[in-house]
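sorry for the late reply, my laptop died twice this morning and i had to redo everyting from scratch. anyway the thing you sent over, i finally got around to it. pasting the sequence first so we're on the same page, its 272 residues, then the predicted structure underneath. double check i copied it right bc i was rushing
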Amino acid sequence: MTVAAARGASLVSVRKLRATALTAWRSLAIWVGAAWADGAATSARPKATVAAMTEVVRYRVDKVRSPLHLREKIWMRHRILCSHRNMRPRSRRWDTRDVSLPIARIMTVCTGNICRSPMAESVLRARLSAAGMAGRVHVDSTAVASSEVGRPIDPRAAAVLTRHGFDPLPGHRARQVRPDQLGQGVLVLPMTAQHARVLHRLVPRGADPAIRMYRTFDPGVAAGAADLDGESSDWDIADPWYGGAEDFEVALAQISDGAEGVVEYVRAMMES
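ok and here's the structure:
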């Protein structure tokens, strides 16, 4: 056998080994998920709570910004589950006291997920925290386009957030929205009418997320609106990416003006 043939055979063997290993890890992931679901189903917790815990796991694993090996994701899933069940990792004992589970999710959406939507994410997190709802609502942000995927928040957006006392999201990396993220119980807040139209086309059959333009939560805008669930370019938050620092100030002011309305809407949704 020639050296080239030997190398080729070696590569084939390595690929087969890797494929076998990945299959084994996937099987383990399914087994771990099934075992947890069985344990949760036999507990005294209501089904709605179990569903909320499952959503926490799915959401937080999706938030990982760097590629992880499958086994690391499985371990992360285990740790998250344990943290929300007041358990020690690898322990089946739990304490049902003082368990706070998220029951709502907000997703802000813009073009590239480097300016407006992460700014809105940061502002909403701050307002929800001030309202005592931080542990009950998860806020995320995505893009309708893939052009900026993997990039950090725009430095100008980070700077304006810092100037106004908001988290500049140093660990943020742009992500494109996926259809499976547009599920039941998600409040999706597009920055423009064009974003809203794209999102409506992505909604999977049978899903019914609440898609509503962000600025319709601004009392000044809502007062003159006939249909708050509609799509009007008059409600757009202009893209500051093409401008300077003053354009980012305007965008942040528009986002801040609608933030309290979003908080009250989510509070009412949670209490209904």
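Confidence is low (pLDDT under 50) at residues 34-73, 82-101.
thats about all i looked at so far, will dig more tmrw
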